[in-house]
Design goal:
2 helices, mainly alpha, rod-shaped, 87 residues
């Protein structure tokens, strides 16, 4: 038989804090994913042989890599928040 009553009940403040944190992370994750998607065409479009454009290309590639890294970090934080809620 399943026990649907949590061993330690959550206060309304704890639930609200969890909800706010999860929502903020979700919004940040969505913004980063959108930014990363917007950078992809720029990576291809800036692949030229002129030195100035090559420098720009390298900056865009770096920004895309850092954005992807932050998406991974936020996904980890989201997982931690959900794991906390499940415990």
């Amino acid at each position: 038989m399943l026990n649907i009553i949590a061993a330690d009940g959550w206060s309304s403040d704890a639930i609200w804090s969890w909800y706010c944190a999860r929502r903020a992370l979700g919004e940040a994750l969505s913004a980063l994913e959108d930014a990363g998607a917007a950078l992809l065409p720029l990576v291809d479009a800036s692949e030229w042989h002129a030195k100035g454009v090559m420098a720009l290309h390298e900056l865009i590639v770096e920004a895309r890599a850092r954005t992807a890294s932050e998406v991974g970090e936020l996904n980890s934080r989201l997982w931690e928040i959900d794991a906390l809620a499940a415990s």
